[in-house]
Design brief:
6 helices; Glutaredoxin; globular; 162 residues
Length: 162
């Protein structure tokens, strides 16, 4: 026989796990909302990495962005991982990938299908290939765009320009 206390604890545990998982689920953005977020900050340097779970070079560089994200957590540098996976793969691919790798850096999912409608809004230099990294400060007064796999030292070198 199961006691009422055990049932309450089990229900609480299930609710807590569900709440914790929901808190880690990436937000979904349209490009204009994402750009508004990163360009409306006057004193924060945004390091935005565009990646996808199916992109091998993207997955290989993510630990370096995670390292930077953890190092700069309480500074004016904000690392933002932007998944280019399809919105319908958020729960079955993106979230399990982030959880499996224990990533703590904020991740959002870009919900755009037509690259022609958003690529130039991010940066005219972008061909649309990933991985790609966009670093910006003060509403594009200072920015850098790189369309290749980066290593930690290269990311730090770009940040040194800011």
């Amino acid at each position: 026989m199961i006691s009422k206390q055990k049932i309450k604890l089990t229900v609480f545990g299930l609710l807590f796990v569900g709440f914790a998982t929901a808190q880690n689920k990436p937000s979904v953005y349209k490009i204009d909302d994402l750009l508004k977020r990163i360009h409306n900050s006057s004193d924060t340097i945004y390091v935005i990495n565009f990646w996808a779970t199916w992109c091998k070079p993207c997955v290989q560089e993510l630990p370096d962005f995670e390292k930077l994200g953890l190092e700069t957590k309480n500074t004016k540098v904000k690392v933002l991982l932007v998944s280019m996976d399809f919105k319908e793969n958020l729960s079955d691919k993106v979230l399990p990938f982030l959880q499996k790798n224990n990533y703590k850096t904020e991740c959002v999912l870009l919900d755009e299908i037509d690259g022609n409608s958003f690529i130039n809004k991010v940066n005219p230099k972008w061909s649309g290939a990933i991985p790609a990294t966009y670093v910006t400060k003060q509403n594009k007064k200072q920015e850098e765009f790189v369309e290749k796999k980066l290593h930690y030292e290269e990311i730090k070198e770009i940040l040194g320009k800011f």
